[in-house]
Amino acid sequence: MVHPKNRWLESISIEQLNTIWSPESEGKIMKWSDVNPEWPEEDIKLFGRGQDSGTYDYFTTEVTGKTRSSRQDYTASEDEEFLAAKIAADKNSLGFFGIGAYHRHWDTLRLVPVDSGGGPIYPSIETASEGTYTPFTRPLYLYVKQDALQEKPYLKPFLEHYYSNLNQWIHFTGYLPLSEAKYQQVLQTLKTATPKATTAAADR
């Protein structure tokens, strides 16, 4: 996300994100023009999730190539409302967090599409479910003990109801639904109750 008045950043590549966020960039990549000479010679103000966050772990893995490895001179917080407010207050800001916070502040923030090699892609229900918003679409899982399915007769009907209706409301929570085909695959897994059953619930 960036400030709405940022009009020079039409899209950003994984390589450019690595240039900005890698540990080696701290103290060196400080201005937008340090990343691209066509961008303004203005200080980049960086914001993102804190280091206790799974979002931070995933972001650093995909951007810098090493989990929990990034520059440390950025404003970090587990509070997405705080981050959204900070980004919305500075036209030189750049930040990352889950898509749900953007949906709550779409009128004060601007999404930047990410180019991972196939052209710029915006995050959306369609690109998440199709798997085209890469590499920042990740599945989240529910893990179900096989013994619990057998010992608790109410659990299986609950899960079948949950997955049969999940894609109708999950996006209201800030998560994006998977494709209908994937939910049907999960339901089939529940039906056969294979050992060590794991089920993907949503993308974030």
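That was protein one. Protein two is written in the same sequence-then-structure order:
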Amino acid sequence: MGTRCGSIDPTIVSIIAGIEGDIPAAKATDILNKQSGMIGVSGVSSDFRDIESAAGIAGGDVNYRAKLALDVFCYNVAKFIGSYVVAMGGLDAVAFTAGVGENSANSRKGICRHLVGLGVSINEGLNDVRSDDEVVDLTGNGSKAKVFKIATNEELVIARDTMAIV
């Protein structure tokens, strides 16, 4: 998450309160909701573009906290995918969409790297190519599941839903 901590042990509230000098639980909760997640780990921003830039994805100096934030993000997304694969009894496809899924080749590659045990392979050459196509098949050779990048147009969906209601 951009600023929130995500899934944590509930005792973390009292731990943070103690670390911060016995602050009230409400302040510790505020830290977990507004100063954690990607911004807390990276120390840079909650915006993936800023974090990727700081991590040296496009070259330049590497901020290791920003790199760590991206690594943690990719691991956690892959972990959630794995839990859903178990719940669904298998995997047919992985679809990357919305802001990060559509626009971050680095995140797609990092997530798929964690999914090799499930037989998922991404075509890194295609993954690195910017495309305006609605659906891009990024499936790598030998992948047991399809890998797609799917464009979103949330404004269009909202407009269509509004028209259907009206």
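The CA atoms of residues 40 and 83 lie 25 Å apart. Keep this in mind for the problem set.
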